[in-house]
Specification:
Layout lengths: L5 E6 L9 H13 L3 E7 L4 H9 L3 E4 L4 H4 L7 E4 L6 H9 L3 E5 L6 E2 L3 E4 L10 E2 L4 E4 L19 E8 L8 H9 L6 E5 L12 E4 L4 H10 E7 L2 H8 L3 E6 L5 H7 L5 E6 L4 H11 L21
Helix pairs in contact: 5-9
């Protein structure tokens, strides 16, 4: 029997410099639509660990040297899902000229779009923030959060007092984790659980557990066990929010600005602004005093990503 699935081409890049967030979001949407689509990740380059993760999920990888290589191959039956700051209106027009269905994942609303759908899961973003050409469906806010499926499941684990979850992004380019971990361990009651791809930076300590390359269900379970989560203002912060941890979060990059601002509206959150040399002291104080937002905004219980399918 012929394969009845349509093709979805997911365009994103990742590196230590730009981080892994674009690919993690594309993986999330791939896992949502995989029963309906044959998934192809299209990239100029990917770290080996991400290539392995993509292939273990059963998805194909197309490495390219320029945008024309993949856009020229699109047909009217294809869907292109783009999570990339350098893909602009010129590329949108090329994709639309092929009559392919275009979904753009965006953080910044800083350029013009010609797209069938725009996804921005930051709370507080409005349609009027965007300049668009043609008919566009807007998928804005946490109802369209690009989370992996396990993060919506109800917890069956007992949260452990004084356990701290720390994840400052997939790459932590500026090594904020190191100074944060050093400060947290000065409190001898705290047990720290660190997610990092740089385990060699940290000295062994009986109260420090280091994890690399966790599966999504393992990451969820670790969040569920921890009383506090210290995270960057990225998708990991939304995942922590959905697991009901006390969240202490901060920006590591300018492109996190709007998500960071939106997360401040939710209960059990504490913003430290941008991570800097003062952050470790602020974080430890927030943990010791359980300093959080007094606002109690309710999280959506339904993910509407399925409604975006062609």
């Amino acid at each position: 029997m012929a394969n009845s699935k349509k093709n979805a081409f997911l365009r994103g890049d990742a590196s230590v410099e730009i981080g892994y967030g674009h690919i993690y979001r594309l993986l999330s949407i791939a896992n949502i639509i995989k029963t309906e689509y044959e998934i192809y990740f299209v990239s100029l380059g990917l770290p080996e660990e991400l290539m392995n993760q993509i292939q273990l999920n059963g998805y194909k990888i197309n490495l390219i040297e320029n945008e024309d290589e993949w856009i020229e191959k699109l047909t009217f039956e294809d869907t292109a899902i783009v999570d990339h700051y350098s893909i602009n209106i010129k590329h949108h027009n090329q994709i639309k000229a092929k009559n392919a269905y275009l979904i753009c994942i965006d953080d910044l609303h800083d350029k013009e779009f010609n797209s069938d759908v725009i996804i921005n899961h930051a709370p507080g973003i409005r349609e009027s923030d965007y300049k668009v050409i043609g008919k566009t469906k807007f998928a804005l806010g946490l109802e369209y959060a690009l989370l992996r499926a396990p993060f919506y499941n109800k917890s069956v684990l007992q949260r452990q007092k004084n356990n701290i979850f720390v994840c400052i992004g997939g790459t932590d380019l500026h090594n904020y984790s190191k100074s944060i971990i050093t400060k947290l361990l000065t409190n001898d009651r705290l047990i720290v659980n660190l997610i990092t791809n740089k385990p060699d930076l940290f000295e062994k300590n009986e109260r420090l557990n280091i994890y690399t390359n966790l599966e999504s269900n393992e990451l969820r379970d670790l969040l569920d066990l921890c009383e506090f989560a210290v995270v960057s203002s990225s998708t990991i912060a939304i995942e922590a929010l959905y697991r009901d941890a006390y969240i202490i979060f901060g920006q590591t990059a300018d492109n996190q600005k709007y998500l960071h601002e939106g997360l401040c509206d939710y209960a059990n959150t504490f913003s430290i602004g941008f991570f800097d040399e003062k952050s470790p002291d602020i974080i430890l104080s927030a943990i010791q005093n359980k300093t959080t937002s007094s606002i109690k905004k309710i999280l959506p219980t339904e993910n509407k990503i399925y409604s975006l399918l062609k």
